[in-house]
Design goal:
By secondary structure, the chain is mostly beta strands. It has one domain. Helices cover about 5% and strands about 35% of the residues. It is built from 4 helices and 26 strands. It has helices at about 220-235, 370-375, 415, 465-470; strands at about 1-5, 5-10, 20-25, 40-45, 50-55, 60-65, 75-80, 95, 110-115, 115-120, 135-145, 155-165, 175-180, 185-195, 205-210, 265, 285-290, 295-300, 315-325, 350-355, 360, 390-395, 400-405, 420-425, 440-445, 460. Strands 17, 18, 19, 20 and 21 form a 5-stranded antiparallel β-sheet that branches. It has a 5-stranded antiparallel β-sheet with strand order 22-23-24-25-26, with helices on one face. Strand 17 (about 285-290) and strand 18 form a beta hairpin. The longest helix is centred in the middle third of the chain and has 13 residues, at about 220-235. It starts with a strand and ends with a helix.
Length: about 475
């Protein structure tokens, strides 16, 4: 379920009692004996959409089983102390997230623990559909790990997200995460959205960054009520839809706040005439890393080896950007100003340059080591090549780990199907460490997991002079 601070949380569910199991918190490391590895073990009576987040002192698990005042299911959270020196208050009942909507973790909801606080964000405003509405907001919640009580919970339901006039969203592509800024140590909201910008016929994916924000609990009741009154009457000027409002509407509107150029990372620039993209069914894994300002997709590329007897090749698809210099006047190649009224305006003067999107590894026919890489990235399916692939992965600043299994066939073989784990290590070499800048390793269920070497066909490592040997065909 989760791993942090050398503690692994797992969920075990008996076959005889679905949706009711046990959560175990286990110490990981050779210095612990088997008898001292279990930090906590407890029963979960209902496990609908169960998730776990923890650090070395506290473990929190949540389920979508609470009932709110409106009769809908809500998220509820329970905490467990993993260290006797840091007990939790006995609240007697889980912490209910009222007026906090969304059910899909990673798409409409995100939960994380940073700096001894629990953070939650949702990009959903309400269960109801507003016929007249203008602005979408993030709903943010934060509370200290040692005080999981309502009076310590801070909220903000009006963190600006987007204007509906920007166009419709392809919700199946939406990814929502919380990440920590290495530069400022602030918690950031990262959302990937594929949109039909300005209701055009072309979809485009953009990665948006917003600061996580909650209101201070020291705000007086008088100022809070004044803000609420101002929010209820805040409407756009000279908008024809304002006249259509009645007592049944609960519209939301906020003028677009000043934004920084770092808050938007488009997948493609406007200078790319016909960029190549992949449909959702061919995109098996996707992620964005704020520290690297890079996105990474794991896609099925039918053009790579062009072999109809084999399934499409799994390849990494990586795009990044970096700041260049101060912005200049937005001129096109002919020197004329671009007439683009829909382009966002930013309150800073930093421009960014997108690096070309790279596909990797190269085709297997290029050289012997490319063939080895293809065999590692595309492990054979346990149920045969005719099955579809199911890919589950995770990415951080240094490593991509993913598991490939045969897709569900809704048969008895699904329960016993094994997966293959592939590890891609992007770590750069340092002066006091071995030079291992790019490694790949495949862990099969049947193989020996001993120390790998350069001649192990399940392991590949970039070495000095690799590119020269690849071009001359002397690699292996």
């Amino acid at each position: 379920m989760y791993y942090s601070d050398q503690v692994l949380a797992i969920y075990v569910e008996p076959e005889s009692r679905p949706n009711a199991g046990y959560i175990f918190a286990l110490r990981i490391g050779g210095q612990f004996s088997d008898s001292s590895r279990v930090l906590a073990a407890f029963h979960v009576t209902a496990s609908s959409k169960v998730f776990v987040r923890h650090n070395a002192r506290y473990l929190y698990y949540g389920t979508h089983t609470g009932i709110g005042d409106d009769g809908h299911h809500k998220w509820e959270l329970s905490g467990v102390s993993l260290d006797d020196k840091f007990p939790l208050p006995d609240t007697g009942r889980p912490l209910l997230f009222e007026d906090f909507h969304g059910t899909d973790i990673g798409s409409t909801i995100a939960f994380e623990i940073y700096n001894d606080y629990f953070y939650a964000v949702s990009n959903q405003g309400t269960f109801e559909v507003e016929e007249v509405d203008w602005t979408s907001f993030y709903h943010c919640i934060r509370f200290p790990l040692d005080k999981p009580i309502l009076k310590e919970m801070l909220k903000d339901e009006r963190v600006y997200r987007r204007q509906h006039a920007q166009g419709p969203i392809h919700d199946s592509w939406t990814d929502l995460t919380l990440q920590l800024s290495e530069r400022t140590n602030e918690v950031m909201i990262l959302e990937s959205r594929r949109e039909w910008a300005q209701a055009s016929s072309r979809q485009s994916r953009t990665f948006y960054t917003s600061k996580f924000h909650v209101k201070s609990k020291h705000t007086s009741k008088e100022s809070s009520s004044t803000e609420e009154d101002a929010d209820t009457i805040l409407l756009p000027e000279n908008d024809l839809f304002v006249d259509l409002l009645d007592s049944s509407n609960k519209p939301n509107w906020m003028p677009t706040p000043a934004q920084c150029s770092s808050s938007r990372h488009p997948e493609f620039t406007k200078t790319e005439a016909s960029p190549r993209s992949f449909i959702l069914a061919k995109t098996k894994f996707r992620a964005y890393n704020h520290s690297c300002t890079s996105f990474l997709d794991l896609v099925e590329d039918e053009r790579c080896c062009n072999d109809p007897s084999k399934p499409s090749c799994l390849r990494l698809r990586v795009g990044s950007r970096h700041s260049t210099s101060l912005n200049i006047s937005p001129l096109d190649v002919k020197g004329k100003a671009r007439a683009d009224d829909t382009a966002p305006t930013f309150n800073d003067h930093v421009s960014y340059r997108n690096s070309p999107i790279r596909m990797w590894p190269p085709p297997a026919s290029r050289c012997p080591c490319s063939k080895r890489l293809h065999d590692i990235v595309n492990p054979p399916l346990a149920l045969g090549p005719s099955h579809t692939r199911s890919v589950t992965g995770v990415l951080d600043d240094r490593t991509l780990v993913y598991m490939v299994k045969s897709g569900r066939s809704y048969g008895a073989s699904d329960d016993s199907a094994l997966g293959t784990v592939v590890v891609v290590d992007f770590t750069r070499p340092y002066s006091n460490t071995p030079s291992r800048p790019l490694q790949m390793r495949r862990v099969d269920s049947q193989m020996d997991t001993g120390e790998a070497d350069d001649f192990d066909m399940s392991h590949w490592q970039w070495t000095t002079g690799q590119l020269r040997r690849c071009r001359s065909g002397t690699c292996r």
